[in-house]
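Lab meeting, action items carried over

1. Structure of the two-component assembly. Owner: GW. Status: complete.
Input record:
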Amino acid sequence: MSINIPQSSLPRVVIAGGGFGGLKLAQELDSRHFQVILIDHHNYHQFPPLIYQVASSGLEPSSIAFPFRSALRKKTGFVFRLAEVQGVAPERNLLLTSVGEVKYDYLILACGGTTNFFGNDQIARHSLPMKTLYESMNLRNVLLQNIEKALVSDDEERRNALLTVAIVGGGPSGVEIAGALAEMKRYVLPKDYPYLDSSLFRIHLLDASPRLLQAMSERSSETAARGLREMGVEIHTGTMVSDYDGKTLRLSDGSEMKTRTVIWVSGIVANAVEGIQAEALGRGRRILVDEHNEVKGLTNVFAIGDQCLMTADANYPNGHPQLAQVAIQQARLLARNLRARQEGKPLSPFHYKDLGSMATIGRNRAVAEIRGAKWGGFTAWMLWLVVHLRSILSVRNKVIVLLNWIWNYVTYDRSLRLILKRNIPVEPYHQREQRERREHEE
Amino acid sequence: MSINIPQSSLPRVVIAGGGFGGLKLAQELDSRHFQVILIDHHNYHQFPPLIYQVASSGLEPSSIAFPFRSALRKKTGFVFRLAEVQGVAPERNLLLTSVGEVKYDYLILACGGTTNFFGNDQIARHSLPMKTLYESMNLRNVLLQNIEKALVSDDEERRNALLTVAIVGGGPSGVEIAGALAEMKRYVLPKDYPYLDSSLFRIHLLDASPRLLQAMSERSSETAARGLREMGVEIHTGTMVSDYDGKTLRLSDGSEMKTRTVIWVSGIVANAVEGIQAEALGRGRRILVDEHNEVKGLTNVFAIGDQCLMTADANYPNGHPQLAQVAIQQARLLARNLRARQEGKPLSPFHYKDLGSMATIGRNRAVAEIRGAKWGGFTAWMLWLVVHLRSILSVRNKVIVLLNWIWNYVTYDRSLRLILKRNIPVEPYHQREQRERREHEE
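Predicted assembly:
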């Protein structure tokens, strides 16, 4: 059984995962020197920094996704396979996938991470992650449906719970989705739901740490918190979540919150790959690598991006932050290092160059920090727009995103409020009556 | 139990279904004279004529969908409810929905139709309809996935079946999706799948009648058939389908075709509404109405569009074709007639004004017939583009669709080839091996 990979006399590089790191590596490798095979369980590369805009009806999924086959069309001999990565068998130089085994000369694990529910299955089942395009579309559906359900509810407690959104995690994703929902509350709800008192729609942002945007300076944290509060977001720092059963969010101080929409953006854990020994795994299941991104204990197997943990970079003794820039810079260096290994030359060690970080809060508002300099307000917001627009793959997507942004900015609207799914999970009213009676009696 | 409809002293018009007819009626009714309630199980109006372009990766779902709440935002007192229409209780003036009962003074049934599988459950289970946005996205996923699966198959018969598409139904939808897939085969496959022999990708178009596009002239039929044949579509007229089990399409002449993708566009049946007596139903489950679209045997209950059957229009003694234009014209007249009924004036009878029909075949190719005049080729194609672009709701969607069309035309590309779903249904390879062995032994 093979997965039909065309013959080639070149050494074969198999890249598992087409996120920022995997895609960049595929682009950088010279097809005169290597046969490049990319394996991913999606047929497109997605752009996570704008996923919150898909969730909040500002952008279409296709605007921030790009099929691998198009992206790498000009690469001679490039092979893509749609498959789930299942494990490695390093002793036989094989990557195991859902469609068969692939022999490699060099293997690069770039499978990224997935939402971290810290082992709480109940939270995983009932809350809404926002890490993939599909999840963001699902979140959009739930947000819009819950408003529709609230409109036809006679039970005040149920109605309020349907109109309450709790966002768990005060990093950039949490801050950005909170801001986007606050704008929806202010500009869209009054027009779309003239009979609804939009002050009933409440947005809570929770974080265990004492301030939002921990990775940024205190000044930026404060700017963000002030901006969100002005927009009506209720911020609860120093607040841990202990459980969520789909109706009641329980906090570690014993208090609780009734909500039907919990957005879970409180961290990631690296995707698991079978065949990697437990001793090669570090914190957050990240694969331990040396300064060349080579997996500890293995030869010609590398890991890059969110999936790896490198402690050899002097400025980052605890490992790098799990950011796009780290993955991209590691991929770029690894392309050169693979060539060096092939030629028997010494490999260069990785040093992360921090290009800064930023988060948008809303219309004309963002925070940005670049090499010690800090911006807030309109300048940071323009900077945010330019940086993100530049990073989006393909001219077509850039144009569509820019047009959507201009449209949304000018009209104060979010045009994509479609609940797009097979079954509209509206309960038949007699069932609902029974259930509500039951709930009331409890 | 109520569904919380705001109080009003005006007579209440309840519209069940927001397709071409229902939406037009909601727009035309004057909110100074009526309270207008629209019920639909989607929160958006969709534009069926371009659904085949979503299926073939040329357009995004959101480009041809428009939320009702935006579309009718400027209408004072307008109420939308997201709900499944379940039945009517005319003796109590009630519409029954999944979220509760709605009292009406006037009820308009505009629920349209659904794909007609002619009672064959096996075909319904295994073939792919293309009537809603969700179905078109699903079809897109299956088309793209089957190509990916073919690439990793060692079994030649299975590979060929994965690369064979059969379209059942030679009306405009069948012709248009056949043309779009033929263009994908010619322009996209060779670039995206350099290792795949694209002649293996075969497109069959089947119809029970002796020619395609029955509703148009023989000349247009021939133009369409010739065009499609030149583009590589294999046409089988006079061919009935008797069964399909997901692998083998059986034809009524006893022959069969191995295919994993059967697109079923061979007719519609009106959606059922409980509480309408059997004697008020005609052919294709359509509700019999008089010349004012009032349901036979009921008062102040009307049916319009695909869901109704009117035999009183002298030029259409067997009823009107199930086309957007009929629904729109009926809605327009009904808005005036409801006002007349309210004022105690006589109602005007409906006469359908045929504005012509058209179908696009591919790049620069279409057929169009307008009041006896017939066009083929580029002129008809431009006409088709203009007519459809004009009919799309909202400036934003017009702009996005036009940009996509220009982009696709200039680049010969279809950019939206995303397989967007939660689980990629690629079988684990050991399961597949077992299954293929089993299949082979059978």
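2. GW to write a short summary for the group page. Key points so far: Chain B touches chain A through 65 residues (CB under 8 Å). Chain B has two domains: 12-41+83-115+269-342, 121-266+356-435.
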